[in-house]
Design a protein that fits this description.
By secondary structure, this protein is α/β, with parallel strands linked by helices. It has nine helices and seven strands. It has one domain: Rossmann fold (3-Layer(aba) Sandwich). Helix content is 36%, strand content 17%.
Length: 213
């Protein structure tokens, strides 16, 4: 009897994105990447794993920390969700994002061209609502950054620096290897802030892991 082979990486996220009408809007941002497939699938992984924690009704805010010059993860969330998305990075290309938002009629996307520590107080002072955080390729110490923010659920991907981007402090509701991410650093965690766990979060945590959409 042949030995069972381990699951292999797959192109499921990329295939789904290529079939969506929203791909035309995403491509101008992702085409600028050295490895577009890597960037697309990393950002889509964040969307997939945070979907159960986006409230079905009522407002929600997603902070995209270390989102890069082109705010790709925030852009994907702005196209695919009704959340209020804020991209935070000191190298954001603001003229490009302004032009892109006008061209494609983007709503639900704003940004801070700054380090997260410089705007943390401003972000924490925003109106109260569920707050999600993404660290897709932030190259930042996740635990240190989360200690500065008001947040409920966070997604982090190992990317290039797992020693920084995987939490050692916060409980992981879900974790593992996302084989639809087309890069070597495909370990992920969905973290929960146990100090802020509300009823909406409790209900979401009981849902099965999301199927690709």
């Amino acid at each position: 009897m042949p030995a069972s082979s381990a699951p292999e990486p797959n192109s499921q996220y990329l295939d789904r994105l290529l079939r969506r009408g929203s791909f035309a809007a995403l491509w101008p941002l992702f085409a600028r990447a050295t490895r577009p497939a890597k960037e697309l699938t990393e950002s889509y992984s964040a969307l997939q794993h945070l979907r159960p924690f986006l409230p079905a009704s009522g407002p929600c805010r997603v902070l995209h920390v270390g989102d890069g010059a082109h705010a790709r993860t925030a852009a994907l969330f702005a196209l695919k969700t009704k959340a209020e998305n804020i991209s935070i990075d000191p190298v954001l290309n603001v003229p490009l994002l302004e032009q892109w938002s006008r061209e494609f009629g983007i709503r639900g996307l704003s940004w801070h061209k700054a380090r997260v520590a410089e705007v943390a107080a401003q972000l924490n002072a925003l109106p109260e609502m569920p707050v999600l955080v993404t660290f897709v390729h932030a190259h930042l110490p996740v635990d240190e950054v989360l200690g500065q923010l008001r947040w409920d659920v966070a997604f982090t991907l190992a990317c290039c620096v797992p020693g920084h981007q995987l939490s050692r402090r916060h409980p992981a509701l879900r974790s593992g290897e996302d084989l639809s991410v087309l890069s070597g650093g495909r370990q992920y965690q969905v973290l929960v802030n146990s100090e802020r766990a509300g009823s909406w979060l409790t209900a979401a945590a009981l849902l099965p892991a999301p199927a690709p959409a």
